[in-house]
Every structure is written in structure tokens, then in C-alpha cells.
Amino acid sequence: MEENKNGNDKKEGAKKSRIPTSVIVTVFFLGIVAVMVTIFINFLTYVDDPEEEKLYKEYYAMICPEQDATFWNEVYESARIAGEEKGIYVEQVGKSLLRNYSREDLMRIAVAESVDGIIVAADESEEMHELISLATENRIPVVTLITDCPSSERCSFVGLNNYNIGLEYGYKIVRVSRSKKKPGEKVKVAVLVDSYTEEAGQNVLCMGIQEAVESGVKNGLTDREIEINLVPIDDSNAFSALEGVRDLVFGTNSPDIIVCLSETETTSAYQIVVDYNRVGIISILGYHDSDTILNAIDRNVIEATIAIDTDQLGSACVDALREYRELGYTSQYFTSDSVLIDYSNVSKYLREEAHDEG
User: Fold this and answer.
1) Fold of 55-160+311-336
2) How far is Cα 149 from Cα 126, in angstroms, rounded to an integer?
3) Is 289 within 8 Å of 307 (Cβ atoms)?
């Protein structure tokens, strides 16, 4: 009797401890769903932004004008690669935003995001001074790029030897002037300067042009009288630059030679000269070595261009910020190499471009 009772108790316990099959199936199903959702989310994360999958030690913000220009994209790409090698994520702030923000607004965004460093094409305006000070107060070092804010609290400037570039332009102006007008007639040169920036480097470059031209005339390298005019152009976007160049070409003081100090100005001048049949009448001295500019030199539409080593520029910015963050100091000034490209050597650069693409 007692044994029966114990046997019944065991059966009852077994019944009570058994989990219903429906519950097991439900839990198993939910587990599968959870795994699938996790995989799907990870897949979306990878597709939308593969960089999110990698952990970076630091995050630098780069703020560039002319964000669609080849020159600035190449500078950014070299900075991104240099950062990647050191575990640093470099973002071109504003590139993927739906609306265009000013350089000053992008500086504020970078400070608000508490980035580890800022790279910015600056100027000498009071607002830029204040924004660099704001970044410094928040312990964010700032490196200025191409255009400087020398009296600010920026930790370093990565730029060009503007005086030497000005000399290169000036010597080329002297050579080109010999084929313009008749002896005794004045050759008009328009140097396109940024109308929206206050930056000493631009003045230094123009001084180099003036000195090289005066030296060429004095030493008899040309028998033409050369008149140099600084023409303000808003090259903050392609449309305004195009309008500015068109007004210059059809104005009362139409130039024989146009010197462009940005890629946007160069492509605008090229388009106007071609569209309005001014090839051979107006000579263009350009800036940067994009495919369009190199091919235009090869076709004798653009006389020459100044090519900048964008790899040096981008990597120097990252190195300067990294050194400052690690050591508390860095070099005050970094310069990048530049070279004049004209018809005599353009084939070399075209071959290099073709090799890189291949």
C-alpha cells in the first residue's frame, strides 16, 4: 500500500515538473527570431556604415571649403588614410548633411560633438578667432589648413609656401606675356582672389607674383608692359565663381591672362573660355591637377597649373593633432610641396593618373 502511494507521488511530481511542449516551441521560436533580428541589425549597421564596426582611439573633424572639389576630397582622403593607420577616425564634417552649413557653423557642430581634434581651412576673421578659442577652452586642439589664423590659439598650421607659388605664377606670366599683344601694348593680368576670406597667405602669394613679374620685365625677359589687377571672386560655390569669371571676361577691363587660386576658379575660367570661344585669346593659369585641368593643359586650353601634394597636406594635419594630443606640443608650421605643370611636362602627370586608375 505504501509502495503504491510512493509510486503515485512520483508520477504526480513528474507531471508537475514537465514543461508543456507548446512553451518549449514558443521559447525556441522566439530565440530564433532574436538571433535573426540581431543578425539583421548587424547587417544593416555594416551596410550603412562599415566604420561603425571598428573602434577608434580618437575622432578628428575636418572642415573644408569647396567640399565637392577634387582638391579638397584628395586632401581629406589622405587624412582619412593616415588616421586609419593610427586608429583615428577622420570625418569631413558637413559632407553628408542635407543642407549646406557655413564653415563657422560646422566648427560649432564639431565643438558640440566633443571631437578630439579639428582641422579647418581658416581665415583671420574675429569670428574664426573666437571659434578656435572656444575649441581650445573645450580642450580640442585645432590645426589650420591652407589658410591660416596665425594670431589665434591654433596648435599648428599646415600650408604651402605661398611666396614660392607666387614666384612660379609670376615667371609663367612673363613667359606667356611674350605671345600676347604687340610690343608696347599692355598685357592685362587678373589674379582671382577670394572675396569672402581674410587671410595673409593670399597677400604673400600675390606679392610673389608681383616681384617675379617686375624682375622679368627689368631683366628683359619680356618686352611687354604687364598690368596686374587683383579681382575679388566669390568661389564658395561653382555658380558664383562662374558668374564672377563671366563678368570679368565681358567687363570693360577684360584680361589677357587669368590667374586662378582655387580649383573652382580654374574650372570656371576654363568653362567660360571654351563656351565663349576665348581659347587662345585668354590664357589661364590654374590651381590643382584634376583630370579636367590636366586634359585642358594637354589641349592647350589651360596654359599651366600649380599642383599641390595633397598626400602631404592630409597626413601632416593628422600627425600634428596626434603629436599635440600625445606630447602637448607640435611644430607650428608644416608645408607641402608644389610643382608647376604645363604642356612640357603634363604627359608625365597624365600617365601617372592613368596608371593610378588602372
Assistant:
1) Rossmann fold (3.40.50)
2) 10
3) yes
